Amino acid sequence: MKTRVAVLLGAFLLLAAWPWLGSAYGIDLVNKILIYALLALSLELIVGGTGLVCFGQAAFFGIGAYAAVKSEVASLLLALPLSVGLAGLYALVVGALSLRTQGVYFIMVTLAFAQMAYYVVHDTPLGGGTDGIYMYAKPTLGAWLDLDKPLAIYGLTLASVALVFALLAVMRRGQFGRALDGIRVNEPRMRATGFSTYPYKLAAFTLSGAIAGWAGFLFAVKDGFVNPELLSWHLSGAVLIMIILGGLGHLRGAVMGAFAFTLLQELFRSEAVFGSLARHWHLGLGLFIILSVALLPKGLAGLPGQLRERLAGKAAILQENA
């Protein structure tokens, strides 16, 4: 446990020092990855924590982003809660209806609600259509924080990821987290003992949507632009791949998966590395993910344990042969 905490603190310190170590492109890339990490943490709460596979997480992300642009609120203390609140409210509505279904039906219902939100911003003047909307004035915190500066938005993003990570870690060790674990492992048994699982699932789903809206707000402020693709099912699928690649059931896995997936995208898109094959980067990325899932069934977060098991097995074989 102490080793894990030390590694997490070391990673945070490295990320905090990154603006003084990396280039402008590198800072922007890591900022984007951290926003995806926050979005992955939101999905990890319901998929890895509760066992509910949601295929509409991008809808909450996009709602948070569009709320940041459309509201034109100048104060960060008002703009951020507005994005989080609207995304959480939509998640509450979606969860109240979709959580009455199970399995593949739950997946399809969440996807349907996400597509509804997508077509609202895609086909109506509300979201600016396919052209999207620009953010002409970014929120500020008086003279303390100007989000028009790259280092300021980077610091806010890093602080947001650290805060959400810590809150989810504490929550999962409490009664609420233990209840979600029970629902994930065996919900029928929980119900048989007289435990009402629906309120817990709805609370987790709503909190997940609110965190996704938080990530959407940061994305909109960073780029100063939003478009309907932020609500597309492609992004929902990508975030699902992130948490699988990182390792389901681990908060650190969500962050690791966001870094791994985004950096792999950058690698396979690089013409300097793959030449003309970079135009077909989806193929290379897909093959790599298939190999990763086959070789690392517990994801990147489970790699140390997997290595320890193999070393222990080899040590036992050597002792038997000695």
UniProtKB/TrEMBL annotation:
InterPro entries: ABC_transp_permease, LivM-like. It is found in: Cell membrane. The keyword Flavoprotein does not apply. The chain crosses the membrane at residues 34-61, 73-97, 103-121, 151-171, 198-221, 233-261, 281-301. It is a multi-pass membrane protein. One of its GO terms (molecular function) is branched-chain amino acid transmembrane transporter activity. Its main location: membrane. The keyword Cell inner membrane does not apply. Signal peptide: none annotated. This is Amino acid/amide ABC transporter membrane protein 2 (HAAT family). It comes from Roseateles saccharophilus (Pseudomonas saccharophila). The lineage of its organism: Bacteria, Pseudomonadati, Pseudomonadota, Betaproteobacteria, Burkholderiales.
